[in-house]
Predict the structure.
Amino acid sequence: MGPTAYLRATGTEHHVLALHEKPQAGLLSVGLAAADTAAVDALYSRAIGFGADVIDAPEALDPLAGGGYGFSFRTPDGIVQKISSGVETHRDRINDRKRPSKLSHVVTRAADFPKLRSFYCDLLAFKLSDATDGIDFLRCSRDHHSVALARADGAGMHHMAFEMPDLDSLMYASGHMRAKGYELEWGVGRHSGPGNNIFSFFIEPNGFAAEYTTEMEQVDDATYPQRDAQWWRENRPRGGPCAWGMATQRSERLVKARLGKLAADVDGCDAAISHHVA
Ligand SMILES: [Fe+2]
């Protein structure tokens, strides 16, 4: 593997995205943080019991990636999942509201949908917030979703979303992207469906869909009314996918990017790896 860049957001996490130079673009792994080493060991035991395709046992992790302790295994679709704890953190937050504060969520295309849902809920203890005909939205904190599964052939990344502090921040960041020559592929809008979050979508140089988001719905386990695909079918938002009626059609390029059909065309550039701390 060639050179690697670990990119941080303004929060204290060591990195939220790592780029490895590879001949072809691809999602290399998704990382999730466990509370401590005991939680890592417990998840490892559960993964073994679950019959997961475990790659390695818990061990000390690469200091260049912030160190810590963890292990990795594959989802039923073959996407590498890393579990870690004790990864180094930055001492200070960066005081810049025009930059993302953290990785908000990662959406992967799920080829083997029932197995994937069970994998995240039964093995990794995610909770299902909402299910539509197209996407399962899963949470592991108060955020409505941190991982989502999009029904589609071929496993891979559907999109990754970076959280902005507020709408003003999201507008600044989106304007900055346009000034740098990146087309706004969808948005700015507010999802009228699950999560109720504000969004703008771009396509990064590897051909992956990247979202800025803010105001993700905060969920209380005791009171949140989990809704299934039938509920969403019967209560489909009348105004379309944007509650404001502002964001209309997704661009054709974005549709292709979310199906992994742009990244496959990219040759000789970096591959992405997302590191998400729950
Ligand atoms: Fe999203």
Observations:
- Residues 24 and 122 are 33 Å apart (CA to CA).
- Residues 37-50 form the longest helix (14 residues).
